[in-house]
Backbone:
């Protein structure tokens, strides 16, 4: 596996591969990799000729400095994991190269960035859209892979790619879960053993909601009450939002008619976790 | 000359040229072409293997609907002019293809978009940065050419290219003027004969400023008074701004020390014109 830290060198590498008509698959990450990321890399290898993974903890998408400071990092472990699944290139830029003095350009996807996480993390999706635009221009992929655990991010990126005419395909892959149901997330590493146990109420709440919908319930208010009741059983867990929304526009829905996104965010101690599923 | 109206087809064309290792030069325009545009196309042909010109009157960069409505258009004449100088492709998209329903993504270059024209045309440079990002992703050029008459636009685009890591070179070319000094602009076509005559005070004011600087004057206030006095001689002309600024940051300067941008905007009847020069 080649490790590239320079933007210019990454562009040269990708340009050379494109001339050889190689299909470049790209998995942008913030590192501290888990099986969720690896499933994206494997799918990238399956669909592309070469796969590039970036690791960059993007400062401008963190709305809280403490979250940025405590975001888990372990590049050496990440490197070994990527090497083991035959990643072609690890792109590992420094923040000073990505955001040199005078940097002042932002990309914003307006409507779909607003609800859900956007309402609680001002500037977050602007930071995501901006860094992903940069990474697309640097890595020049034919396809880019994102995990559906970050469902709103997938919607934002798809919309951005369409609106700005990036000539590439976005592929999203299902959330990978721990055997007990917790959605894999780099932030899970920050949970204490007790918090780790409490956090199971999130995936349990999603399953309960799926159950009541299977039994015929369609009213959002009723379904969301089931979700809130389940999470309320864990006093350590503080719900930030639980919403039923149209999975394309992310607008709230009053009823489940057709595929509906159930998205939730909650604080488990000092750690903010998100999870989601599609109902019906 | 090939005329391409579809985004997808333009991307395919450019991708094929890049695989053949052809250097693609790109001149984005809003049409109603004049010698200023043609100088960009000729320089593009000189530096590239193929040259693509786009004509698209971009609705989102007009802050006044009436300016958009009255912006001069003549695609048939433009086509003939481009054909005559052996342009390879004219990219001519429809507004409905560039901005389909649900479009919601914007690109903003924050600091350098704020002063000068940015202060009087809210949203203008956001519209420019957004459409140029789209066009770069559609035409995939190795180099793109812009005219220095739109000096602030050149600064905004250069900054955007650097910040978003577009892998292409920006080339700017000097303002082309009519024999009597008026900077060429598509909007000149909207001037009445009397207004056309009055508008000469703009280039005359620039020349006067250059003269007093040559004679040793360094104080911005004094130089700008010379500019204002010259323009005041034409009662039909209403100055919008006249500013001395750092040509890289576009920040106001109190003194001319090193190369300094003198930029001005003025209304001649219903027509807004801009002009600029570099002092010293």
Residues:
């Amino acid at each position: 596996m080649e490790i590239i830290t320079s933007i210019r060198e990454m562009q040269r590498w990708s340009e050379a591969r494109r001339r050889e008509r190689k299909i470049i698959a790209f998995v942008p990450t913030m590192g501290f990799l888990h099986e969720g990321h690896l499933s994206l890399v494997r799918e990238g290898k399956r669909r592309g000729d070469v796969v590039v993974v970036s690791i960059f903890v993007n400062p401008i998408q963190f709305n809280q400095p403490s979250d940025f400071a405590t975001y888990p990092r372990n590049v050496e472990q990440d490197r070994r994991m990527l090497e083991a699944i035959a990643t072609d290139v690890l792109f590992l830029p420094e923040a000073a190269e990505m955001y040199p003095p005078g940097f002042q350009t932002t990309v914003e996807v307006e409507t779909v960035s607003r609800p859900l996480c956007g309402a609680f993390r001002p500037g977050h999706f602007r930071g995501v859209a901006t860094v992903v635009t940069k990474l697309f221009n640097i890595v020049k992929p034919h396809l880019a892979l994102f995990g559906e655990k970050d469902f709103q991010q997938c919607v934002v990126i798809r919309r951005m790619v369409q609106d700005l005419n990036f000539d590439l395909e976005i592929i999203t892959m299902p959330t990978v879960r721990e055997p007990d149901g917790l959605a894999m997330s780099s932030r899970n590493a920050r949970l204490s053993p007790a918090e780790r146990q409490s956090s199971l109420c999130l995936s349990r709440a999603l399953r309960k909601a799926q159950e009541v919908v299977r039994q015929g319930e369609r009213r959002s208010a009723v379904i969301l009450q089931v979700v809130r009741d389940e999470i309320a059983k864990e006093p350590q867990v503080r719900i930030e939002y639980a919403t039923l929304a149209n999975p394309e526009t992310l607008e709230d829905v009053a009823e489940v008619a057709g595929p509906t996104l159930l998205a939730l965010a909650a604080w488990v101690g000092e750690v903010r976790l998100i999870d989601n599923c599609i109902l019906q």
